[in-house]
Amino acid sequence: xxxxxxxxxxxxxxxxxLFFSIFSKDNTPWTPKAHSRICSxxxxxxxxxxxxxxxxxxxxxxxxxxxxxxSQSPSKATQRYTRAKKRSQLVTVQLxxxxxxxxxxxxxxxxxxxxxxxxxxxxDFEGEVNIMFLSSHNNDVSTQxxxxxxxxxxxxxxxxxxxxxxxxxxxxxxHHSTFCGYCSVKNEDxxxxxxxxxxxxxxxxxxxxxxxxxxxxxxxxRLFLFLMRxxxxxxxxxxxxxYSIDRRTASRIFYEVLESIHKATANWVFWPDVSIIKSxxxxxxxxxxxxxxxxxxxxxVRLNETPQTVEQRVLYYSNYKSxxxxxxxxxxxxxxxxxxxxxxxxxxxxxxxxxxxxxxxxLIEPDDLILxxxxxxxxxxxxxxxxxxxxxxxPRVESPQLSAEDVGECFKVASVRVHVERAIxxxxxxxxxxxxxxxxxxxxxxxxxFCCVLVNLQSPILKDNNPNxxx
Length: 471
Prior knowledge:
Layout: H1 2-22, H2 74-90, E1 99-100, E2 116-124, E3 129-137, E4 139-148, E5 153-156, E6 161-164, H3 188-195, H4 199-206, H5 219-232, H6 236-243, H7 247-264, H8 274-279, H9 283-286, E7 292-302, H10 310-316, E8 317-318, E9 323-332, E10 338-341, E11 345-346, H11 351-357, E12 369-371, H12 379-385, E13 390-392, H13 404-428, H14 438-441, H15 444-456
Parallel strand pairs: 2-4, 7-12, 12-13
Antiparallel strand pairs: 1-2, 3-4, 5-6, 7-9, 8-9, 9-10, 9-11
Helix pairs in contact: 5-7, 6-7, 7-15
């Protein structure tokens, strides 16, 4: 506003100097004296006005031969002043000291000798009003603004409910009518859909993060941003838009939280003692597999980008998936608890190689029974036999048709081994594993491990009284 007043003042001085030079006899600037007078005919309306915004504040009515450019007609100038005066009388406010000018500035010019300059700006103010500030001296300079209150209330047209904007969030703007991070979550369903955890698990994970950080984003929103990417698979550009932060800031927050949580939960996927396994053995295993210690299987995470080197392409290519993958060996206890997770291997690696190389066999004790798919080679049976353990797999098809005995055995194994597939499916529900690029590939093992931790923190896959239904 001060800038507009300065511009208007300079325009007045320029017009005055132009007027005085016109009536100079020797073409020298005319200097008014104490008794100098100007005829009222040179003022619009025939009279001088002491109001600075009035078109008659300076003399502008002169013959056309004295004018370098065509000026605005007196009637239009008077009408413009009248309209501006009516608008200024509608609202009288005292501007706040902190004025935030919008990025976009619109410049509008008439075809007359005067220039209309309109500037749109946003102000934080109590209530919402439209204000026009006008200064008119041949050149019209106007500012139009919308004043918004610090805490406004909007209405959702679909639900006819009021949405209160959050003013407590740190690290991004104050006006949020729909989403402002963790404080936008109101119930357990919203929490599960957005982050994949409950409020209880969220508070548990929150303990592993430090409150003090170099980021302006609160510790709750840092964790919530991390969980949203894990659950929904949002890229950093989308998260930066939601949280009103830079994309690089969102990336640093994600990997910082991942590092902290991975260190705290490194031992949360563990091999339980045999006494715990038997005390939590579901009813479905009592009849046929009372000594079952674990159910093992392999699953693959597809890469969205082709590896850069030839060696990596050969290592990660999976004939089974017809693409580049990272392969993991997983073992679950009979009750569905994930008890073992290997490191990531290339998709070219076989199930037997991963089982041996991951040292899973070293965890097996005498009299243990391991359920596996028929893709595991028979050599594992020999290795487990040296430990007095048993590896149970579905019977192989050696003839065009299975015998009745083989069909029954296959059904018994499949009816209990299917629960490892259900655990793997829970891991796949975290969409970050569906968009593994070269950047995510560097942290794939901690990410898969954290997904397994979250699965273990969910409701059990099996109930003791009903092994075929989820809780």
